[in-house]
Amino acid sequence: MSAEGGLTTAGYIQHHLTNLAVCSGAAKDAAGHCHGFWTFHLDTLLVSGILGLLVFGLMAKVASKATAGVPGGLQNFVEMVVGLVDQQVKDTFHGKSKLVTPLAITIFVWVFVMNAMDLIPVDFLPLGAAAVGIPYFKSVPTTDPNLTFAMSITVFCIMIWMNLKVKGVGGFLHEVFAAPFGIKLAPVNFIFRVVEDVAKPISLALRLFGNMYAGEMVFILIALLGIWQLPLALPWALFHILIITLQAFVFMMLTIVYMSMASESH
Q1: Domain locations along the chain
Q2: Is 32 in a helix, a strand, or coil?
Q3: What is the pLDDT of residues 60-108, one digit of tens each?
Q4: Active site includes 193?
Q5: Catalytic residue among 115, 163, 189, 211
Q6: At a CB cut-off of 8 Å and minimum separation 6, what does 216 contact?
Q7: Active site includes 211?
């Protein structure tokens, strides 16, 4: 599956950027690609679901066998990750909620392992999928805007729920129409609030998607270099470890900040 193996350079890139999709009431074009709202990206659902089951199943198993004595290496690593996230929540979130820390841990760990799929050689999983008759397979879920927007919209819904839970319906509406310029400028306050709240999930989703999509594109372009790809792929992969960690951390921290803003009152 390379430019030398029957695909042009443009075809090779397009092939690696195409999701395995199934249509539900949507039309397909001449190439067999789905178009329409009810289109499911099976590779994104499959990879993200399997990674979630594996990593959180492993963490649950470690928690069930945790000991108060000298911890083993895996328990020590899980405790380190949980402790790191918990400290960030304590430093940033000033409200009272038992949801924020588990939410932050879930986001950081899940986004990190999905991002880490970018370190697998770009042809490895597509070749395996092609061997069993699957035409397309994108192995990095966070390069799919459907997933990043699904996560950001979920965070947005939790943020609205926390606003209502902490402030009540009356308090929340008063904040929407009275902050920051006072109740006399309620229409202006409302417009500012709508723009602010809509921008949060959009920026949260596009930041993660854009960075991971760009990183995946670089790996694809390096793969086109043939025998010269190894000297370039290794340094980029080492640098990309920083990117995948940073993007998971940023997504987590912004979620914590949004939850903290929702739990505070003007």
Answers
A1: 43-263
A2: coil
A3: 999 998 887 777 888 899 999 999 999 999 999 987 888 999 999 999 9
A4: no
A5: 211
A6: 16, 17, 118, 122, 140, 143
A7: yes
